[in-house]
Write a structure and sequence with these properties.
The protein has about 525 residues and is mainly α. The protein has 24 helices and 2 strands. Strands 1-2 form a two-stranded antiparallel ribbon. Helix 3 packs antiparallel against helix 10 (about 175-195). Mean pLDDT is about 80; it is low at about 145-150, about 445-460, about 510-515 and about 520-533.
Amino acid sequence: MGPALAVTQPASKLGVVLVALVAAGVLVDRDQRRRAVLMIAALVLAAVLLIGHIADTAQFHAISDDARKLVSLVLLGLAAVGGLAVLFRRRPEALPVLAVAVLPFRIPVAAAGSTANLLVPLYVVIAGGCVAYISRRSATGSNTGRVGVAGRHAVAVALAAFIVVYAFQSLYSRDFNQALEQIVFFYVPFALLFALLVEVEWSTRLVAVCAGVAVALAVVFAGIGFWEYHRRELLWNPKVIAANQLQSYFRVNSVFWDPNIYGRFLMLVMLAVTAWVLWEQRTRMVLWAGVLLAVLWGGLVLTFSQSSFAALLAGLAVLSALRWDARRTAAAAVLGVVAASLFVLAFQSALKIHLGSSSGVNKVTSGRGDLIVGGLDLFRNRPLWGYGSGSFGRAYRQERNGNQQEAVSASHTMPITIGAEQGLIGLAAYLAVLFASLRVLFGNDAAGSSRAPPPDGRMQNPLLSARAALAAMFCALVVHTMGYAAFLEDPFTWVILAAGIALAPRAVLVKPRAPAPAQTGKPALAGVTPQAP
């Protein structure tokens, strides 16, 4: 099947490989003028691939067959992109703020016979940022800036390698259309966003504004979730609406399509607020933050998202290790896991779960037990190269039970999905991204060189809490992908890594000898050393 599939849809497959190589170039090229050219190429190629992919859909024909509607939408899009480009050129710090502001918002778009909820507002912001970057390079002719840091950074290289490997492994995929959508809708635009964000000068004020925007959105979304729970009505997603009719509990999703994605957003914001609290000295602000966390926790509980709860605990453990002691935190985490496991095993009847049977495991994991077993079977069948990028759903149905009508898209466990689709090759690329990301988020600085803390041990709480928050959020995301997938398909991953690279030289998270309290006038932190900009 592999060689036969590789020669089908030659134009689209050539386009996917080209756009992936161009996006990789944007990530790793140190020359800013070449990077500007590559950005143009990435935007054009992605647009051509997307139009070719959705050209036969009814949603596209509804626009393309009406000349006035088509012209109006094109002019509106160009005006929006142009206006944002002018704003970003004058105020570069507005880019990350607007990017954070539009991260949660998705619009349904028909593609290849199905409907995907896409981050259209974010795409417009990214396009505006690219135009601003290109025009800035053209006007000044300058070839210097912060972008060289990302160009030589291991994270950028690992991300570029993952995208290229994914594109080449789509050539023999059993579901090439799915792989194309992953490339065009997620990997390419998010690579451009990453390249733009590492160019920004991340100040304390900018970090605070971005965090404030995320917190404000979370409060609004939680309010909508409370309203849904009170009315027992959801804004959308017929699947969740139908499931709520059959369950003894009622899940909410606020403005999000999936309760798990809503829970993920709340969880990440809660970790950011908690990190700020741990490094905050003012009692009144800590109390207000406690109230905020209580509200967000209430919103999170109503999602009934098990993966979000587990991710929150993992993120809190990371914050605890950074703020106090890593060994004690690890010991407490192990004891907590053991105690929880023993409790579940001892009270299975009371909890209405039966872990001794496959049906019981499936019930507890919402059917994911079979998906995991099926994914492992796929990996064993083709351990080296897998069934091709984006192919999990189709390969699972064909190899597992032949039921082409079964709704399966992924194993919901990221390493298993990658192993089944891309084999050991893809897993190596995935692990490289994880290793490089953890190294920068917990390491010394973005360039990988060690810098000693200032002799007076000055404390910069905002930057320290920001870096701790980014490290905890990334770890929580990784944990969440073990129960829900969507790792590099989530723009939060790229934003966290870009901000982590930018902030790493300015607030170092290492395990040094903490300065004595008498020198700083503030409590010494085990596991965190501040550094002046």
